[in-house]
Amino acid sequence: MPLTLKNFDQVEDSETNERGLQYYKDGAISSLEEVENGQWDASVMGAQLYSVGVNLKKLKINAAGCDCPAFAQNNYCKHVAAVLYAIRDNLAKAESAPKSAKGKKSKVKTSSQLLHDALHGVEANDLKIFIESYATHHKDFTNDVLLYFKLQSVVNETSQEGFIEVVKTAVDSSKIKSEIDSDLLARHLQPILMQAQKYVNDSNYLEAFYVIKAIIEVISPLLKSLNYIFKVDTNAVTESIDLIEKISGFNIPPMFRDELFDYCIALAERQDLIDTDYDRRIDPLLLRLANDPKRKEQILDLIDRKLDQLIPSDSRHTTTTKLNKHLIYIQYKIELLRELHREKDIEKLIKDNIYYHDELAHIAIRQLIKDKDVAYAKQIIEDKLDGNTIILDIYLNKEREALKWEPYFLDIAILENDLPNILLYAEKFFKSFQDIRYYDILKQYTPADKWHKKFEEIESSLFRKHYSFGILATIYIRESKLRDLYELLKKHAFLSNIHDTLPILLPAYKTEVLNLYNKAIISLLGHGTASAYKEAIEHLNYLLTLGQKETVHDWIETFKSIYSNRPRFLKELKNVKI
């Protein structure tokens, strides 16, 4: 389904759209302009001022972008959503405007610009009278004004306690019938977050840290109840941790870096943040801040406590979620131990946890085979095959588990020069995985006088599997069996197959293989879609890279004649780089 201005708020992430709509309503868009037909540029105030671009063709959204971290990760963000809401409203207004105003490029006056114009020349006393009168009937406006001036007074004083009071005021002013409205809370926290961002931009990192700590201290205990009641996250703690991460990347004094580290250690221990996204964000931040062995040892102690909480040493059962988190902490620990050059401890850590995590078992087995400790490697493999070491009560596909672990028996057989098992496992895994590596091993170890018969068996087996073109083609190329390769291609004359084998077959079967290619491209053009036309052009340009300029020229002339009634395709033909 194409993304349009009409449907984007149904297609894209609903939570992101809700936040974007709130940004739009709160006047976070500081500028919005249609710089050329369909191309809109905007500036949106979030944690900082972000640049947003949107390209439209009629109502279809061709492209959108934002320079914020969220867009880089998800290809969508609340800033883009806010701009899409603004454009949609602007176009709706333009549609209902007088005819003389239509067709002009839009330079939209944002709410802040309109307010600036309206206040021009207004006397201070008149404005005061209006504010007092309006606030009498609008509680939200009253709360916004009180919060604004309270924040300004704290900014002037710059005290930790003052910022805590401001955040508490934001929470209190966001209550409806004693329950917190998370949308209101997000709006009330926005200016506080913007002040923290301003401190960071001005290199006032300690002041920014005061604001961050105030937000986390007051908001984090509310997170689980907010998520449970409203299914909406205020996002304030996330943005606060983003700012700590940003500050940690600057050249800050060692004492302040230590203070940040100690604070993050305390956050990592917080029960109200465990099993939340913030818990997962704090741990990698700690790794960044740990710039000396003493700090690294502190994190190792923290990780050990978390590992024991997730899977106590006397437990053999856990959940998938806890198991995944356990592996993440194991990986953190390996990273720290490697930085401390404690290779023996890494080996022990992996061996102690191979029964919990297949990933670690694979690492251990490969190392044991490399060290020629075959007995221990076999023991781990056999335990995995028995399924006795799996700690989750889930159904295991024994055949799939076997294919995961048995290939190590082939590595061991090669190490021990055990010819019967080499041939047994190489053939078994080649049939299972259709991996050319196992074919090469099978050929290398099969006696020369028996290879011809074995090759015929392999070929016959692959012919019975209609999906085996790729591996069979690779074998024919390895064995220089070009005639067999061409006959195989005739039976599977798909564009992708022809494309892949063309460079090999052109010297010996030029006419034949080009005829196959021509028929496949004509079949593709029969779809009559824009994507089919573009793909056809790509194939023609590919032929040019293979030196087939004359063939491409002849085909183009034929296509112009056959498809003279398809202007879109004729236009695409101009993209052939002949």
Number of helices: 30
Structural class estimated from helices and strands: alpha+beta
C-alpha Rg, in Å?
A: 33 Å
* Overall pLDDT level: 85
Strand ordering within the main sheet: 4-3-2-1-5
Give the helix proportion (percent range): 55-70%
Count the E strands.
Answer: 7
- Give the terminus-to-terminus CA distance: 35 Å
Q: Note the beta-strand portion.
A: 5-15%
Question: How many strands, what sense, and barrel or not for the largest sheet?
Answer: 5 strands, antiparallel
Shape: flat
Low-confidence stretches: 228-234, 389-395
Describe this structure in words.
By secondary structure, this protein is α+β, with helices and mostly antiparallel strands. Among the domains are: 8-119, no CATH class; 124-289, no CATH class; 290-405, no CATH class. Helix content is 69%, strand content 6%. The chain has 30 helices and seven strands. The strands form two sheets. The chain has a five-stranded antiparallel β-sheet with strand order 4-3-2-1-5. A hairpin with a 2-residue loop joins strand 1 and strand 2 (39-45). The longest helix has 31 residues, at 495-525.
Write the SSE topology.
Blueprint: H1 8-11, H2 14-25, E1 29-36, E2 39-45, E3 49-57, E4 60-66, H3 69-74, H4 78-95, E5 107-108, H5 111-119, H6 124-137, H7 139-157, H8 160-172, E6 175-176, E7 179-180, H9 182-201, H10 205-219, H11 223-230, H12 236-248, H13 254-269, H14 277-289, H15 293-310, H16 320-339, H17 343-353, H18 358-370, H19 374-386, H20 398-405, H21 407-415, H22 419-433, H23 436-445, H24 448-463, H25 469-478, H26 482-491, H27 495-525, H28 530-545, H29 549-562, H30 567-573
Antiparallel strand pairs: 1-2, 1-5, 2-3, 3-4, 6-7
Helix pairs in contact: 2-4, 6-7, 7-8, 7-9, 8-9, 8-10, 9-10, 9-12, 10-12, 12-14, 13-14, 15-16, 16-17, 17-18, 18-19, 19-20, 21-22, 22-23, 25-26, 26-27, 27-28, 28-30
